[in-house]
């Protein structure tokens, strides 16, 4: 984790340096025609961090009082989730430089070659707002390649990891809400580098004693209330753009 954090810090410094260098010669570049819109494909990489309210999960009475998570299992489940490398892949279409609509897939995983491996995936549909376009309504073209957006999304996610009870990967799934920030500097019309931050808020109501066998009777615990909690990730963005 220390090495990945040091790598991330170095990468952030590199992006900031390149952005400042690019800004000094912005007029010599050929920035995108943001106001004409375009299709974007984006990779985002950085560390991911879980916040799981084990106390709330353990005390939930469940919809069936004979099937509850309990404090011991809730604590083991929380400890089975690791803060580690996270990758997001996004595809979205920008409309006239002001707004975007699209989807992203976020994945995280740990100990993938071990019996105690685990991981999670979140699929989100989202809409984004690009406020910088408001300052260039009367301009034919933005004079620099910087773009900034904030987005909101709704989707589905699942996570699981082996616990110390019997080695089975306990898991949860359900509804997600997402919010994020992204800033990119386009060094050409088709390529940009930047920084992002993403918060995924968990509204999960299903707990699986073994998420590999979710359909087995008695293996699914339905919570009385959605879990709460969140997953956060931040880091570097690499964007490819198709458009004018």
Describe the secondary-structure layout.
Layout: H1 2-24, E1 38-51, H2 54-59, H3 71-80, E2 85-95, E3 99-110, E4 118-129, E5 146-162, E6 169-188, E7 191-208, E8 220-222, E9 230-242
Antiparallel strand pairs: 1-2, 1-9, 2-3, 3-4, 4-5, 5-6, 6-7, 7-8, 7-9
Keywords:
244 residues, alpha+beta, single chain, 3 helices, 49% strand, 8-stranded antiparallel β-barrel
As laid out across the biggest beta sheet, the strand order is 1-2-3-4-5-6-7-9
For the termini, the CA-CA separation is 40 Å
Whole-number mean pLDDT: 87
Radius of gyration: 21 Å
Number of strands: 9
What can you see in these coordinates?
About 5% of the residues have low confidence. The longest helix has 23 residues. The chain is of the alpha+beta class.
């Amino acid at each position: 984790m220390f090495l990945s954090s040091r790598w991330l810090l170095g990468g952030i410094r590199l992006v900031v340096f390149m952005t400042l260098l690019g800004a000094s010669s912005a007029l010599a570049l050929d920035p995108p025609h943001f106001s004409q819109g375009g299709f974007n494909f984006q990779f985002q990489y950085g560390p991911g961090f879980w916040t799981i309210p084990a106390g709330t999960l353990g005390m939930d009475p469940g919809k069936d009082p004979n099937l509850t998570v309990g404090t011991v299992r809730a604590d083991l489940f929380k400890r089975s989730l690791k803060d580690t490398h996270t990758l997001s892949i996004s595809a979205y279409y920008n409309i006239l430089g002001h707004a975007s609509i699209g989807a992203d897939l976020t994945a995280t995983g740990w100990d993938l070659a071990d019996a105690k491996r685990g991981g999670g995936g979140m699929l989100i549909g989202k809409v984004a707002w690009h406020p910088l376009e408001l300052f260039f309504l009367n301009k034919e073209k933005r004079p620099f390649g910087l773009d900034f957006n904030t987005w909101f999304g709704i989707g589905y996610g699942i996570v699981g990891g082996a616990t110390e009870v019997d080695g089975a990967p306990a898991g949860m799934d359900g509804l997600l809400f997402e919010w994020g920030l992204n800033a990119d500097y386009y060094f050409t019309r088709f390529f940009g580098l930047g920084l992002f931050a993403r918060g995924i808020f968990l509204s999960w109501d299903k707990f699986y004693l073994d998420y590999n066998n979710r359909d087995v009777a008695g293996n699914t615990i339905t919570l009385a209330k959605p879990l709460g909690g969140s997953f956060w990730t931040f880091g570097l963005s690499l964007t490819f753009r198709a458009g004018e």
